[in-house]
Amino acid sequence: MSLVREVETLLAPGGRLSQRWPRYEERTVQRELALDIARVVEQGGVLLAEAPTGVGKSLAYLLPAVLHARGGERRVVVATCTRSLQDQLFERDLPALLEAVDLRLPCARLKGKQNYLCPRALQQTDGRGAEEDETLDELRRWAAADEEGDLDRFPASDPEAMRRLRGRLGADPHACTMLTCRKGRECYWVRARRAAAQARVVIVNHALLAISGEVEGLLPDFDVLVVDEAHRLEGVLLGQLEVAVSRNRVEEVLRLVGTGRRRGNRAAAPRGNPAGLLARVRGFALPLFTAGKGSASAEREELDALAARVAHARGDADRFFEAIEPRGERHEVYGARERYRSALELIGRDLAPLEAILSHCNRFARSLHLLAEDLDSLRAGETADDLVGELEQAGGRFAQLGADLGHLAEATHRDWVYWRSAGGRGVELHGAPVSVGDHARRLVIGRARSAFLTSATLSTGGDFGFLAERLGLGESRGLPYETASYPSPFPLARQMKVFVYEGGGSEAEAVSEVVAALALATGRNQLVLFTAHERLRRVRERLLSSLEASGPLLAQEWDGPASLLAERFRLERGAVLLGVQSLWEGVDFPGEALEILVVAKLPFSVPDEPLVEARGDRLREQGLDPFQHDAVPEAVLRFRQGVGRLIRRSDDRGVLVVCDPRLVTASYRRAFLESLPVAPERTRDARALAAGAARFLGVPAGAAETVAPLSPPTPGAPADPGSVEWP
Ligand code: SF4
After folding, report:
1. Burial code of 216-232, b = ≥16 C-beta within 10 A, e = fewer?
2. Considering only CA atoms, which residue is closest to atom 8 of ligand 1?
3. How many CA atoms lie within 13 A of 511 on its CB side?
4. Does 3-112+189-240+438-485 match 492-697 in CATH topology?
5. Are 529 and 583 in contact (CB under 8 A)?
6. Which of 54, 290, 589, 690 shows the smallest number of beta carbons within 10 Å?
7. What is the 3 state secondary structure string of 588-637?
8. Element (H, E) at 421
9. From the CB of 204, is ligand 1 less than 6 Å away?
10. Three-class SS of residue 670?
11. 188 lines ligand 1 (CB under 6 A)
12. What is the CATH number of domain 3-112+189-240+438-485?
């Protein structure tokens, strides 16, 4: 039986799934999607499928995937965007499906290296305080019985202590390898890769998929690839390929080697030991060298030289980063980011500070490697082996730092964009490919015979060209694709009401007026989405006093990270959550958790942001208008993602308020309006808007609380920034 036919039979009313799952309901759109996927899996090719919330995408792709994977030497890789979705697929959806269709298949989940407990780090880490000590004991007991060592799954009784410890306990994503570590057999990361190599279905996340093409053997070969939440793949690829060097990064590696001054004589001192690696080599290894070779004078001299070099390296790093600080004015919203196109533009003619740091990196890399080789040759037991591994890792980090800094300072890759930035983390150098399309096509999507990419938002006005271009797909590039869009199973036109608020003198004024009026009239949960932290701050300031008598006001970063605030928001009623980037997508607020969504501004990228500018240059070279071909489709996709937070279930009702009149007045408005299920109502009256929203949501009269009048703007506060925006 063909795969398509088999999928059809299993999903049909009275088929196996309905027999096994009492609550199973055949969904027409889900069936169509599953059949389309089965066809692509059978015939090969790339399918971009836009499937809205509620279709039941996971079952639609998992069913053909597992049926395909059971035969011959086939392997399916499924990539989800987040680790929590990865866990959900692996622990819940996949086992339930395999059981329902009576299949036994080796399946594995593989995450990024740093998510796995590193046994060597666990052995070397001491807690800083009683809470961390207790958490470490708990972790040791858990690790002794756990097969996977996946730190996401460790049920810490003190999550805060675990959060502090986590960075010290995970496998080092940059430097540790089987060659530099003797704990291969105990290593969870090694085990996880081995399990993936033997599995027929491997569940990964985008980040791991993104780097898998460049890291030999990270993922075994596969013939079918499924990418869920595919609209986020480009951003993840970009994040993985971006190279950055900061003063902090230099300091991190210098701290790792330490000053060489001894604090105790333990080779197995904690990683965070301020005395560092050089001191431990001195304390532990010098006696071994003396015993083994009769003298350790060469090693002692080398350690002294390296220790002296640490201080020089710090000074040179300070000079270098001071010299490259962006000279342009710091934008009040976006900080200082300055693009540069050559080494001359970055550092001028004085190359001395750069050359000094590169020479330090070289010297540390080489010397640490030689020390490791010397120590290794003594064959002095397990502790010495561990120290050898640490020396190799530290050497590797210096080598990588030198290579990255050299690349960023030269700025010679034609297809890359380079910039320096100055913000809360100090001065940083960055470089990233202008487009990740080549990488995505060659090393990710093109690796599979059949690739299926899905999300609720892949197109703008039904056109998939923008996203396909960003992912390097297309006939002309040798990787043609087909597309499919599926209708929402929800009656969205009845579930949603949309307003455009055209009142308010500035963005902050408009948003705070609307939010306060809505809180007063409805008392329902509101999510307010911003495009920049500074804009969020202005509105927060205004709302702090006006919402006093209402529900809680939660602001991303001020009151906690997005994930924690999202959890809290779900449990609150009458709350206002102010969010930026990460809350535009990937968060689920079903039912009463979210009934009002306020979009402060259409989510355009900043045109003079280096990457956006570089993409614009490219398009101009091709005779295309960057605004029409890049800015608008990108903003529409982001807008659709944001709006998608509102209706998550068939019985949800929600009000969308867009505080940006451009939605109904700009020349490009159609692209945005087409993504809404109903036409918006325009108003300049915040109270009338709020009353309309309350009626739509069925709020009983007088149910909401009293809200104090709006606070005036802070005297002297600058007007909303707008100078660098698209029209
Ligand atoms: S290879 Fe060694 S250092 Fe790396 S994660 Fe495994 S145990 Fe830790």
Report:
1. eebbbebbbbbbbbbbb
2. 118
3. 32
4. yes
5. yes
6. 290
7. CCCHHHCCEEEECCCCCCCCCCHHHHHHHHHHHHCCCCHHHHHHHHHHHH
8. strand 416-423
9. no
10. helix
11. no
12. 3.40.50.300
- Going by alpha carbons, the residue nearest to atom 2 of ligand 1 is 181
Check if 189 has its Cβ closer than 6 Å to any atom of ligand 1. Answer: yes
Q: For the stretch 14-44, what's the b/e string if a residue is b when 16 or more beta carbons lie within 10 angstroms of its beta carbon? A: eeebbeeeeebeebebbbbbbbbbbbbbeee
Distances in whole angstroms, Cα of residue 131 to Cα of each of 115, 155, 156, 540: 21, 15, 11, 34
Distance 393 CA to ligand 1 centre (A): 10
User: How much is the pTM?
Assistant: 0.86
In the prediction, which pLDDT does 335 show?
A: 59
Residue with CA at minimum distance from ligand 1 atom 6: 187
374 vs 380: CA distance, rounded Å:
11
DSSP category for residue 296: -
* For the CA of 177, the nearest atom of ligand 1: 1
538 pLDDT above the threshold of 50: yes
The amino acid at 324: I
Distance 181 CA to ligand 1 centre (A): 6
Residue 639 has what pLDDT?
A: 96
pLDDT of 426 reads: 80
Residue 83, CA atoms < 13 Å, CB-side half-sphere: 14
Task: Map tokens 């703007």 to a residue.
Answer: 713
CB of residue 143 inside a 6 A radius of ligand 1: no
pLDDT of residue 329: 61
Ligand 1 atom with least separation from CA of 171: 5
187 CB near ligand 1 (under 6 Å):
yes
Atom of ligand 1 nearest to the CA of 393: 3
Nearest alpha-carbon partner for 258 in 274, 242, 271, 243: 274
**pLDDT for the residue numbered 270:** 42
CATH code 3.40.50.300 for 492-697: yes
Cα(189) to ligand 1 centroid in Å equals 7
CB proximity list for 706: less than 8 A, separation 6 or greater: 520, 549
Cα 125 to Cα 135, 183, 252, 395, 557: the distances in Å are 12, 16, 17, 20, 29
- Pocket perturbation via mutation, ligand 1, pick of 183, 185, 191, 386 by most ligand atoms within 8 A of CB: 183
Residue 583 CB less than 6 A away from ligand 1: no
Angle among Cα 512, 513, 514 to the nearest 5 degrees reads: 90
| d(CA 690, ligand 1 centre) in Å | 57
pLDDT of residue 722: 34
Of residues 109 and 299, more confidence is placed in: 109
Nearest-atom index, ligand 1, CA of 121:
8
Query: Token match 């009269």: residue?
Result: 701
For the chain, the structural domain boundaries read: 3-112+189-240+438-485, 114-180, 244-433, 492-697
- Residue 542 Cβ < 6 Å to ligand 1: no
What is the rounded average pLDDT of the residues 431-456?
A: 95
Q: Are the C-beta atoms of residues 485 and 454 closer than 8 Å to each other?
A: no
Which is it for strands 224-227 and 107-109: parallel, antiparallel or unpaired?
Answer: unpaired
- Strands (DSSP E) along 424-546, which ranges? 426-433, 450-455, 482-485, 496-501, 526-529
Mean pLDDT of the chain: 88
How far apart are the CA of 445 and the centre of ligand 1, in A?
Answer: 30
CA–centroid distance, residue 120 to ligand 1 (Å): 6
Residue 188 has pLDDT above 70, yes or no: yes
User: Residue 96 Cα, ligand 1 centroid: separation in angstroms?
Assistant: 33
Give nearest CA residue, ligand 1 atom 4. Answer: 176
